[in-house]
């Protein structure tokens, strides 16, 4: 049965009316020139953290913090896809009742049902289950919140804090994390901590202790919110999480199921600039039927909402190399959105030169670029460029790097991306890119009106929101500074819309 056939089964007036409302909202909001075409955005109003991405009966499901027009409280929005890229809106999955809002959480897929765990504000962590084909009918646990909020020592966080949970199953029962902090003030001087709980029946939960080895932490002030804990290969586990101070990041290491302790081997960041200004935010992750570790993040605005807010990143496939370093790739299914193709080969760019590409342009495109940096100190592309270069977003590679990072650097600079005066300013997004001196730079760049995502050598991904104001800010150019560089290949594809109702 196709997805369209299954959607036709949503024939009850309440369900069908809500889905039609989302379709009408998307058509109404499509006039916004900054609303993306192939990245997920909410059907209307406010969206925040992705929650509980999973695969059930062959379909991918995305839940997310959502507040529809006219609503005062946050609930779980819901969309479904056959391929991770073309989404269809479904009715709201979870509404608050005894809790004030349904905040972040994750899902666990079992043979006969899907379990969702989420944070009910002013109540605690809760459980809901569903087993129908489209996961539209959810039953909340009668004893919610199953892990209630408890009085704590505000300084130490003792005995434990209750916040954004995730869930998995081992031989002896269910385990759930509460992603929080201890010993101080969040975003100031605290330590990150994930409190671990166990249950045999989803009803009664016992406190186990801290998941992450106590002697391993990030910088002061960072919490471990919105945790996602999954095996990632090579007998390693990944703890993917969000810090309210520094954003998305991860640990990779060893999990001892006998002691229920996770010992990280290394730590990495998925964004590096200021939080919540046009940048990467909270994650959700799952293991799909093909064994892929899949992750998706929301990306915040740098402008006041205009009928809607926030975007999801493209789904990302995370894996490990033989040396246990992280591989970061967009999922292969994104290539199905490629339309008209253009190619430029073997362009040598001299120091201080900018080469505008006459055959490649657009604001809804994918670029695949191979660069031989040569002796250049900076080399890269300008995208979303106006003909007079007054608006442009600059993507740069710095082979010599910076002492702070100890490696070459990748950068997205949006400081000249827009002529609008109402945007919240943001410095460039900069991250390390560990490549050998003689290794070409392989970039996959996704431009979708107001978001730019750059994947580099499967080792780094940077994300930034930009808001070009001019209709002619669609150009692409190549540049080099401090020496010449060769662009051995530049390929471009116009990308299709993922929303059938928008044509």
User: What class would the helix/strand composition place it in?
Assistant: mainly beta
Strand content: over 45%
Low-confidence stretches: none
Name of the CATH class of the largest domain: Mainly Beta
Question: Widest sheet: strand order?
Answer: 24-35-26-31-32-33
Question: Could you say what the CATH topology of the largest domain is called?
Answer: Tachylectin-2, Chain A
**Main pleated sheet:** 6 strands, antiparallel
Helical percentage: under 10%
Question: Quick one: how many beta strands?
Answer: 35
How far apart are the termini?
23 Å
Number of domains: 2
The geometry reads as: globular
Summed over residues and divided by their number, the pLDDT gives a mean of: 94
- The gyration radius over C-alpha positions equals 23 Å
CATH superfamily of the largest domain: Glycosyl hydrolase domain, family 43
Give a short summary of the structure.
The protein is mainly beta and 503 residues long. Helix content is 4%, strand content 50%.
Task: Describe this structure as you would to a colleague.
Helix content is 4%, strand content 50%. With 503 residues, the chain is mainly beta. The protein folds into two domains: 3-330, 5 Propeller (Tachylectin-2, Chain A); 337-498, Jelly Rolls. The protein is globular, with a radius of gyration of 23 Å. 47% of the residues are buried. The mean pLDDT is 94.
List the helices and strands and how they pair.
Layout: H1 3-7, H2 13-29, E1 45-56, E2 59-67, E3 75-81, E4 87-94, E5 102-109, E6 114-120, E7 124-130, E8 139-140, E9 147-148, E10 165-170, E11 173-182, E12 191-199, E13 206-210, E14 225-233, E15 236-243, E16 247-256, E17 261-269, E18 280-287, E19 293-299, E20 308-309, E21 311-312, E22 316-320, E23 326-330, E24 338-349, E25 354-361, E26 364-372, E27 378-385, E28 393-402, E29 407-413, E30 429-432, E31 441-448, E32 451-456, E33 460-465, E34 475-481, E35 485-495
């Amino acid at each position: 049965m196709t997805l369209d056939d299954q959607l036709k089964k949503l024939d009850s007036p309440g369900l069908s009316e809500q889905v039609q409302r989302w379709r009408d909202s998307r058509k109404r909001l499509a006039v916004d020139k900054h609303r993306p075409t192939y990245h997920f955005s909410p059907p209307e109003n406010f969206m925040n953290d992705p929650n509980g991405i999973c695969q059930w009966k062959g379909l991918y499901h995305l839940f997310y913090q959502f507040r529809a027009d006219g609503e005062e409280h946050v609930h779980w929005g819901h969309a479904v896809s056959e391929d991770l890229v073309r989404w269809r809106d479904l009715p709201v999955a979870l509404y608050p009742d005894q809790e004030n809002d349904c905040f972040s959480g994750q899902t666990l897929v079992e043979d006969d049902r899907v379990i969702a765990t989420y944070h009910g504000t002013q109540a605690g962590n809760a459980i809901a289950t569903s087993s129908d084909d489209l996961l539209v009918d959810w039953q909340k646990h009668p004893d919610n919140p199953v892990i209630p909020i408890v009085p704590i020592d505000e300084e130490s966080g003792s005995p434990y804090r209750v916040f954004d949970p995730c869930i998995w199953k081992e031989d002896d029962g269910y385990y759930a994390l509460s992603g929080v902090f201890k010993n101080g003030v969040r975003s100031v001087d605290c330590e990150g901590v994930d409190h671990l709980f166990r249950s045999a029946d989803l009803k009664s939960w016992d406190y186990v202790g801290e998941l992450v080895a106590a002697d391993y932490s990030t910088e002061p002030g960072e919490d471990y919110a919105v945790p996602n804990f999954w095996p990632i290969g090579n007998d390693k586990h990944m703890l993917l999480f969000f810090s309210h101070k520094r954003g998305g990041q991860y640990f990779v290491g060893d999990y001892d199921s006998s002691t229920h302790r996770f010992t990280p081997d290394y730590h990495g960041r998925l964004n590096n600039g200021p939080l919540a200004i046009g940048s990467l935010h909270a994650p959700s992750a799952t293991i799909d039927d093909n064994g892929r570790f899949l992750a998706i993040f929301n990306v915040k605005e740098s402008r006041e909402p205009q009928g809607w807010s926030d975007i999801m990143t493209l789904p990302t496939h995370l894996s490990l190399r033989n040396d246990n370093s992280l591989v970061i790739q967009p999922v292969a299914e994104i290539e199905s959105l490629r339309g008209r193709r253009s190619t430029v080969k073997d362009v040598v760019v001299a120091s201080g030169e900018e080469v505008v590409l006459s055959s490649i342009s657009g604001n809804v495109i994918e670029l695949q670029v191979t660069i031989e940096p040569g002796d250049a100190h900076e080399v890269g592309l300008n995208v979303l460029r106006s003909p007079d270069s007054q608006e442009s977003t600059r993507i740069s590679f710095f082979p010599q790097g910076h002492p702070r990072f100890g490696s070459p650097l990748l950068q997205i600079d949006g400081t000249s991306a827009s002529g609008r005066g109402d945007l919240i300013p943001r410095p460039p997004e900069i991250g390390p890119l560990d490549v050998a001196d003689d290794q070409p730079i392989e970039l996959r760049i996704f431009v979708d009106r107001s978001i730019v995502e750059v994947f580099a050598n499967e080792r780094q991904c940077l994300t930034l929101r930009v808001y070009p104001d001019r209709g002619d800010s669609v150009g692409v150019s190549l540049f080099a500074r401090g020496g010449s560089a060769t662009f051995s290949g530049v390929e471009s594809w116009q990308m299709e819309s993922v929303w059938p109702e928008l044509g």
